[in-house]
Amino acid sequence: MTVEIQQARETAVRRTPKKRKNQLPIAIIVLILVIVLAVVFGQISSGLAVAWIFGVAFGVVLQKSRFCFTAAFRDPILTGGTSLSKAVLTAISIALAGFAVIQLFALQSGKGVPGAVNPVGIHVAIGATMFGIGAVISGGCASGTLMRFGEGFMMQWLSLAFFVVGSLWGAHDFGWWQQAVISASPKIHLPSLLGWPAALILQFAVLGGLFFLADWWGKKRNQA
């Protein structure tokens, strides 16, 4: 009887949910630290203070939204979830509209197309494939890795270290790629090629089609 009572107590202890620690004091300390550093950076340069505040705010948004480009492409296949996929497509659509306005105003003022129009070639496919494989294995893209690094995930600490190594390696070999492949690849600027109306309609049509495809796929997988 005593053994049964002891087992029952151990079972009850295991089933009792752990009380969550109050993290409000830590949050207050971090907030004060952020403000103090913003003031210090502001004394050095106003741009540095703005960059610091924007970086902190961007990190909070990433952590709360769990926004990750890798998950946007991985989840539809592995879990059937497409919420992040639709979020990425929405973000790209907003960026497309914003950059189109900026470029149109720049062209009307005679300044030319702002921004870099980079060549498209086999180097893009090779880089995208290598980065995609690495991102899926490590569990995150650049934004997801930084966000989980801040949360304390040790796997992302290792991923960030090799992220830096890979970036340095890529920078070291960039000259060869530039001479052998990139310089010979064509530069494609759709508005210059098709005209602004046709280019914008085509891009929004592709993004809209992908959005509805992702929405259909998510509903289909959830019903299965």
Automatic annotation (TrEMBL):
Transmembrane segments: 24-44, 50-67, 87-108, 120-141, 153-172, 192-214
UniProt keyword annotation of Transmembrane helix present: yes
Claim: Nucleotidyltransferase is one of the keywords in the record: no
Any matching Pfam family: Sulf_transp
InterPro entries: Sulf_transp_TsuA/YedE
Key words, A-Z: Membrane, Transmembrane, Transmembrane helix
Protein name: Uncharacterized protein
Species per Swiss-Prot/TrEMBL record: Hydrogenispora ethanolica
